[in-house]
Amino acid sequence: MSDSPFLRKISSEMRLRGYSLKTEKTYLLWIRRFINFNHKRHPEQCGAQEVKAFLTWLATERHVSANTQKTALNALAFLYHKVLDQELGPLGFSLATKQRTLPTVLSVSEVAQILSAMSGSKKMIVQLMYGSGLRVSEALRLRVQDVDLDRLSLSIRDSKGNKDRVTLLGASLRAELELSIANAIRQQQEDNESGVGCSMPVSLGRKYPNAFRSPSWAFIFPSTTLCHHPVTGELCRHHLHETVVRKALRRACKEAGVVTKRVNCHTFRHSFATHMLASGTDIRTVQELLGHNDISTTQIYTHVIGQHYAGTVSPLDRLQC
């Protein structure tokens, strides 16, 4: 099904409208699931009733979260409204009741233990996730031009929701980042001698065909191998893959003895937000650093803090007996 002309048409439509490759992959996944749910009937032969049944099934049988159901709805809305040019109208499907759970947060000592079991570029990526509140994809996509060592800031470009933001950079990483930047530029120059370079955004690469030779566009964490660009097919060097960091993190947690918590890359972004709030940082500032549109998204971390939030303590601790 991955090579079907229909799915290729959907991919072309998403790229024409500027959707990210990650969103494209997610939407295609849900569209495939919808097609399989309807016994591989073509979506043109389905409609609002089939979409309603699928979304209801996700909620009542698969027990997905509200956010997962919303993602599936967005994918099918794109399919029918933008590709098939069909209006679905009011669907009236059963809403998912599984709400967001509290995020896993590490203590400061647990973060230190895990970092002590890591080294090299993988350690620095985890340090950036914890020290700057980055998603793993944001850390991996950092280019030389995104790092300001004088102002100790990072520019996060085209992040989730196609947003840009600026966040802080820990001063303790300055020396290591300077070395990584020098290595990245050296790798870029070596690639340029062979007529290749870093992967570029498609539209920018067309407008500035020699931009891949500029040191400012070099990835700070380049891949160890060359690959073909997923859109243009040109030979280039992308950044490290997320699985490289996940595998290194899994080994580090085991070595550090942090095995009682479910730790993944996003745990360090959660820990960044929680520790910032616990230290007295204003929640609006944390919202800006994380790039949240709605402060209610940031407020979930206040539930993790306990006694540190707004000076609240347990009434048991006030007893004099």
UniProtKB/TrEMBL annotation:
Record bears the keyword DNA-binding: yes
The UniProt record lists the keyword Manganese: no
Span of domain Core-binding (CB): 1-84
Origin: domain of life: Bacteria
Coiled-coil region(s): none
Domain Tyr recombinase, first and last residues per copy: 101-314
UniProt keyword annotations, A-Z: DNA integration, DNA recombination, DNA-binding
InterPro entries found in the cross-reference section: CB, DNA_brk_join_enz, Integrase-like_cat_sf, Integrase_catalytic, Integrase_integron-type, Integrase_recombinase_N, Integrase_SAM-like_N, Tyrosine_recombinase_XerCD
GO terms, biological process: DNA integration; DNA recombination
GO MF terms held by the record: DNA binding
Family: Belongs to the 'phage' integrase family.
Protein's name according to its UniProt entry: Integron integrase
